[in-house]
Amino acid sequence: MTKLKAEDVLALTPVLPVITIEDAGKAEALARVLLASGVRAIEVTLRTPAALEAIRIIAKTAPDIAVGAGTVLNPADLDAAIAAGAQYALSPGGTPKLLKYARKSSIPFIPGVSSSSEIMRGLDLGYTCFKFFPAEQLGGVSTIKALAGPFPQIRFCPTGSITPAKAADYLALDCVLCVGGSWVAPADKIKSGDWDSIGVSAKQAAALR
Question: So which residues are the catalytic ones?
Fold first, then answer.
């Protein structure tokens, strides 16, 4: 895939699967199931030792899906993700150091925010797409609606405790490009290789918008 902008990434799929993978050997099969089900982007969180290798495998064997790195906490994480083949990166937050460093990165970076002040700091550095995290704990749809008023130029990827039943309410907002969802491919389903169940969840997620 060609180089993407943050808006391009978030518009690829209504639900961005948030993946925690323990065995990189499962990565190719997972990516192919998601692609076959209509999902065109995936976030592999850097929470396990297998994460970077999983990103490498997906980037090499399933180039039609945009693979990104999640839980990027510092510049070293971002560099490692890029070296592994990640096409974009996300963080649950954003330190001044990381935000400035990522602006010079070769891939789009989507920082996490939880307040208007964090949004303003991001805007000052040129960011317009943010991960709203943890979405449900911060008030969910009603909070995003409130934030959209003073910040009409920004777009969100809300993530955190969003269920399939709640996803549609988020996606109905013009400022929401996609939602992050760990329910699409839960860690236990990946571990057991339950591709049929993941395929069903992925098809339902892809049909939400």
Answer: 43, 131
